[in-house]
């Protein structure tokens, strides 16, 4: 009997378990999934909590509800992964030996990487919205805020869901308008990138949205430290930005267990083949989702497209066939733009976000790189799709590989 | 893309001026490339960064990030910004004859 081990039961690990459990021959393979937490968070929903659109109950469900019934599940922290010995040691002393391992340990924020961030004012007037604690604490602040200067800062790239900070400022503009205090709130978006987004066409399009919504864009700003006493954010070159409310997107890093196990780069992301998703160092290790070092977005949609490719490659590996180098960096992101509207972008390693219709060329119903009400409904419907289809590994009517059909070169 | 003569050697450069082939680079080219980036004199500290980048690129096959220079090269981030103001990763890569570092999405 051989053993497939899935490390991490978040979006990526859960999808993979659900895809593989029905197809692996149960006389030859057993599957174990390890995770240290019981609760699954719908992370795209964190964006909506500070504005009172979602609350905590809207974004949590028990992880166990989503695991297939015919696999073993271990809820326990991992001490160390020893890929040279094909085994994982748990903190309670248990040792799990595997033949094949899929790592899906994700990424998380690490505010402690920035000097002065985690002081007395952390979650007082400095917040993240990438954790349930940060998003709910920020809700309590914003609910009673009477205005001032809100600075939204991306500390360094890469970050999970690179469009979320933009959505955050778009929603802030909408929310404070609805509250009747938009004239009392200054919004400044501060990013280390040269523009609003990485890719030129989308950066220009989204940059124009910032201008239209009277949100100040400060680019090429590499955050070095926070002076909590004087409510000031400094760059490494001592440029100063004052704030009353600082919303930070801190340094994102892979899991500490990856660092402890010597499997990651400086940010604990695992060097991974960008097309086959095999570890660059260990043949019987595959990596999925935010845990990789791929130059793709860290997002659920990316994990979903990767999962389609990995599903095939795991079977090929087991059957001794050559792997398929089929992952193209495909990402698909709804960008909530406020006032009940949204933007959709669809892109991959080589093709930047372009205008057009999606998923049906010429028809839609969604519009690429345009602001529409339908795109907003796509975003809001996605929560249902996520819980009921995506996590369960169901087929969605979107190909893993990006297509140029329906897109316009500009 | 264009060819240019740096320190007496003809090299190919991309649209932004980065050397096309890192193996074309010699240490003699660095002062000229530095001037193009607005750095008049390369000090020992500059050279420490350049040499680390060259060596790391040879070993890893990719241009090191600022974080990698800090963690693996032992060069404080603050120093990098002082030595190569406004974008140390790009400027240092330019002077070290390496390609433009890949931005993330």
Describe this entry's structure for a reader.
Chain A has 410 residues and is an alpha/beta fold. Chain A has 3 domains: 2-106 and 255-318, FAD/NAD(P)-binding domain; 111-252, FAD/NAD(P)-binding domain, CATH 3.50.50.60; 331-390, no CATH class. Chain A is 23% helix and 26% strand. Chain A contains 7 helices and 24 strands. Chain A has helices at residues 11-20, 132-144, 164-178, 200-212, 256-260, 300-318, 373-390, and strands at 2-7, 29-35, 39-41, 60-62, 72-75, 78-82, 87-90, 95-97, 100-103, 107-109, 126-127, 148-154, 185-190, 216-218, 223-227, 232-235, 240-242, 245-249, 252-254, 285-287, 331-338, 341-347, 356-360, 364-368. In chain A, α1 (11-20) runs parallel beside α6 (300-318). Chain B has 105 residues and is mainly α. Chain B has one domain (2-95). Chain B has helices spanning 30-36, 44-60, 66-71, 77-83, 88-95; strands at 2-6, 9-13. In chain B, α1 (30-36) runs antiparallel to α5. The A-B interface holds A 156-158, 162, 193, 198-199, 220, 222, 224, 236-237, 265-267, 295-297, 331 and B 65, 67-68, 70-72, 77-78, 80-81, 85-87, 102-105.
């Amino acid at each position: 009997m051989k053993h497939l081990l899935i490390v991490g039961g978040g979006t990526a690990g859960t999808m993979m378990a659900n895809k593989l459990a029905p197809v692996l021959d149960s006389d030859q393979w057993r599957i174990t999934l390890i995770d240290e937490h019981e609760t699954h968070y719908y992370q795209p929903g964190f964006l909506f909590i500070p504005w009172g659109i979602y609350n905590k109950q809207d974004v949590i469900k028990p992880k166990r509800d989503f695991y297939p019934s015919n696999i073993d599940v271990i809820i326990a922290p991992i001490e160390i992964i020893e890929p040279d010995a094909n085994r994982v040691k748990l903190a309670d002393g248990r040792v799990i030996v595997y033949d094949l391992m899929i790592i899906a340990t994700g990424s998380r924020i690490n505010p402690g990487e920035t000097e002065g961030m985690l002081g007395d004012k952390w979650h007082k007037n400095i917040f993240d919205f990438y954790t349930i604690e940060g998003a709910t604490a920020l809700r309590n602040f914003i609910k009673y805020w009477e205005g001032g200067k809100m600075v939204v800062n991306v500390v360094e790239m890469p970050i999970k869901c690179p469009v979320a900070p933009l959505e955050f400022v778009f929603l802030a503009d909408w929310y404070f308008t609805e509250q009747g205090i938009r004239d009392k709130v200054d919004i400044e978006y501060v990013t280390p990138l040269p523009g609003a987004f990485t890719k030129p066409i989308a950066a220009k399009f989204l940059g124009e949205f910032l201008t239209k919504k009277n949100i100040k864009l400060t680019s090429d700003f590499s955050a070095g430290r926070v002076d909590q006493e004087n409510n000031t954010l400094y760059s490494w070159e001592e440029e100063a930005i004052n704030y009353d409310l600082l919303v930070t997107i801190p340094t994102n890093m892979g899991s500490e267990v990856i660092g402890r196990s010597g499997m990651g780069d400086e940010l604990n992301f695992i060097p991974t083949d960008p097309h086959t998703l095999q570890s660059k160092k260990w043949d019987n290790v595959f990596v999925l989702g935010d845990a990789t070092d791929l130059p793709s977005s860290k997002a659920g949609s990316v994990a979903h497209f990767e999962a389609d490719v990995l599903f095939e490659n795991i079977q090929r590996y087991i059957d001794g066939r050559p792997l398929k180098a089929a992952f193209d960096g495909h990402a698909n992101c709804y960008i909530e733009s406020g006032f009940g509207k949204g933007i959709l972008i669809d892109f991959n390693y080589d093709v930047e976000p372009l205008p057009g219709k999606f998923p049906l060329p010429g028809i839609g119903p969604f519009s690429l790189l345009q602001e529409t009400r339908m795109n907003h409904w796509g975003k809001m419907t996605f929560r249902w799709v996520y819980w009921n289809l995506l996590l369960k590994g169901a087929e969605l009517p979107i190909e893993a590989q990006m297509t140029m059909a329906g897109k316009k070169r500009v | 893309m264009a060819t240019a003569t740096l320190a007496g050697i003809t090299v190919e450069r991309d649209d932004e001026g980065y050397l096309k082939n890192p193996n074309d680079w010699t240490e003699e080219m660095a002062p000229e490339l530095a001037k193009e980036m607005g750095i008049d004199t390369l000090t020992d500290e500059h050279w420490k960064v350049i040499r680390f980048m060259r060596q790391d690129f040879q070993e890893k096959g990719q241009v090191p990030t600022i974080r990698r220079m800090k963690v693996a090269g032992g060069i404080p981030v603050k120093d990098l910004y002082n030595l190569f103001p406004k974008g140390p990763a790009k400027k240092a890569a330019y002077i070290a004859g390496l390609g433009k570092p890949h931005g993330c999405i």
